[in-house]
Specification:
The chain is an alpha+beta fold. Helix content is 39%, strand content 19%.
Length: 485
Amino acid sequence: MSKELVTLEPYASSLIESMRSIGYSFETAIADIIDNSISAKATEINIYQRVKNGLPSIQIIDDGSGMSRSELLDALRLGSKNPTEYREKDDLGRFGLGLKSASFSQCRILTVVSKMNNEIHGFQWDLDIVAKTNGFVVRELDEIEISSFSNLSYLNERECGTIVQWENFDRINDSTHDLQDELADLMIIAIEHISLIFHRFLNNKLTIQVNNEKVIPKDPFLKNNGGTQERPIEKIKIEGETITLRPYVLPHLSKLSAADKRLASKANEYYKSQGFYLYRNERLIVWGSYLGVSRKTELGKNLRIQVDIPNSLDYLWEIDVKKSRANVPSIIKKNLSKAIVDGENVSRRVYTFRGNKEVTDIESMWSFFSDRDNKFHFEVNTENPLYKQLAYTMNDDEYRLFQMYLKTLSENLPVQKIYAEVADGKGNIGTQDENLIDDLKAIVEQTNVISSVDIKEILKSLLSTEPYKSSNEAVDYINRKLGEL
């Protein structure tokens, strides 16, 4: 005969303190709160960093559908929804933990005030009270507390809405000398994160403001850039649901302005952004990764593949509580690999075409050579007009010494160092524009006294040579001098 079942109630304080270490960052925690606002059909979300009585707080306020007293209590319950239950197709939640786990990861006091049907209710999780009682207890705000609650006027002016407030940032405070400055810095990072994660919502009907500044959406695929190439769309059917793949190949980096680079990615992350962009109900989950299906390549770094999945397939993708990690289902790996190969071929042509053009023109300073063993090297281009003019001024001994120097120079070109610097996102410093005209004047003066040098040929060559050809002032100067000769 089987024995009776024994109930093991979890220790509230121990469980919640463990939940605080799930792995949220400040920006992913903020994003999880925004998910709830979007699921509540909010069209306007305001985020504020405030100080009251010397103590900082953060509020996330929305004009969504709001909650009744019983709904608010349920929303504050740990595991308020079973992740296996059906959810509406536009619901961004899954585990019934986001509001609590995200908030507890950043603060010890979570207060939620919500309005629905002209009634306003508020409840508060205080982890110090949980520690004292060792119970899953929340405190209900009385009428006086609610009436004096910061930004309550926002709810009073609307039919419905919700305010989520964080206080007592114990972990952040312990890691910094100035909590206010640290929160301000974290908020800047959060704005970048929000502008990318929710860019499709921000381009539709949603407005998000942080301290009264509107968040401008990113465009990771630069869809409005004429140089972006959109590859054929592929739709994959799984269990009656559709997964959609949309590969994009962005223009060559040299064709992008600084504004384009900021628009396409988070600050200083353009070079890390190759790969899948996995969206769940238009909310970005994972980006800049091939999720183990393939590895990143230098010539394929302009490839970005938009992958749209419905929330009904969360279990296949193993979406985590933070909605920041996923695994590719084996059943569709071949489809994703095909999209990568096709997109990388296009991205590779963008780079190799530009590379061949740069090293095969007669005006180029370098010649590129490759062999059947997939090895390559560079040599100074001896067909370049500047090279020829210089060679004409040398006697035999000088020319032989010069050739020896150039051969040594070519064999010691720091290719690995150049690759490392470029892969790290650094650009070529080049010659400063203010020095170009002085350089050109010196060239003209020096060549005028050398009878064997054709100054016209040199100037014509400079018109197609960096850094002169990229400077309008330098081009104008050269053309003016050519007109005088």
